[in-house]
Amino acid sequence: MPDKTLNILVTGVGAIIGYGVIRSLRMTDRRLNIIGTDIYEDAVGQAWCDEFVQAPYAVSDEYLGFLSDLILKRDVDLAFFGTEQEIQRCTSCQGDIDPMIYQRLVLNDPRLLELSNDKWVTREALIARGLEHLAIPSVIDGSYRSISASWGDTFLLKPRRSYASKGMHVVHDESEFTFYKERMGSQFMAQKLVGDAEHEYTVGVFGLGDGTHAGMIQMQRKLSQEGATAKAKVVFEDGLSNAVSELCRAFSPKGPTNMQFRKEGDGFLLLEINPRISSSTSIRAALGYNEAEMCLEHLLEGKMPHPSVKAGSALRFIDEIVTSA
What we know:
The protein is built from eleven helices and 14 strands. By secondary structure, the chain is α+β, with helices and mostly antiparallel strands. It has a six-stranded antiparallel β-sheet with strand order 13-12-9-10-11-14. Strands 3-2-1-4 form a four-stranded parallel β-sheet, covered by helices on one side.
C-alpha cells in the first residue's frame, strides 16, 4: 500500500454516482482523504467523506473558480465527477481551466463527450464508421402514419439530449405521438422498439484513449423508475465483447466508459454511450471491477489496470442515515 495519503475530490456526493464513487474508493487498500462536494448542504454522501464543502451550481459563473481553488487549496491528486452537469461544464470550458488542474480531472475524450450528448449524432457516427449493425433504427422527422408503417403502432419517442432514460415515452397511437412530439420540438427523435426489458445490458469498459481498453464488465440489468440500475447480474457474452471492442476502436474512449445495449435476436444494439463513471459503479466494484481504483492505478500510479470480474448479482434497496437532534 502506498505511504502517501491521496487527496481525492468527489463531486455530487448526494447523488448515486457520487456516493457510489466514494463507496468504491473505500474498497481500496489506499490511504485516502476524500473531499466531497454537493450543491446541497445536507447531501447524504458527506457522511462517508473526510471533508465536505458545499458547491455552487455547475452553470454558475462561480463554479470553475470554486473547483480550481478547491483543487489547489486541498492539494487534490484526482477529482471524480458525480454529475453530468459538471462534466459538461468542465469539458466545454477546458480552455478556461489551468492545464495543471485539468489533468487532475477524471474526464473522457472531449470529442466523445460531445458526440454522446446527442443520440442522433451518435447514431450517425455509428453509421459513418461502418457500425450500422449496432445502430437502432431511428428518425428525427416524420408523421405517426409514416413511422408506424415501418415499425408498427408502438414505438419509442425520446429527446436527443437526455440521460438516465429521462423524457422517454412509448407511444401507442397518433394522439400520444402528436403530444410528445410537440413537447420535444427540435429535440424530437423516434426509435424502433427493439428487444425487451429482460434483455438490457450495461457494460463498463476502461478505455485507454487509443482504441484499446483495459478490461470490461458486462451486466444484464433492470432499471429503476429513476433510470438507474436496480437489479443486475454479471454475464459473459461474446457478442457484447465484440460490440464493445468495435466501439472502442471507433471512438477511442479514455477512462471509465459506460455502454448500454439491448439484445435482439443474436445481436446487440447500442442504446447509448455514457463516457463517464456509471451509476452502477459501486455494484461493479463489489464484483471485482472497481472503476475508481482503476483511475488511481492508471492516472496516478502509471499502472495498467487488470480488473478481475467475478460472477454474481446485485439488488438495490432503499436505506437511510438518521441523525438525532
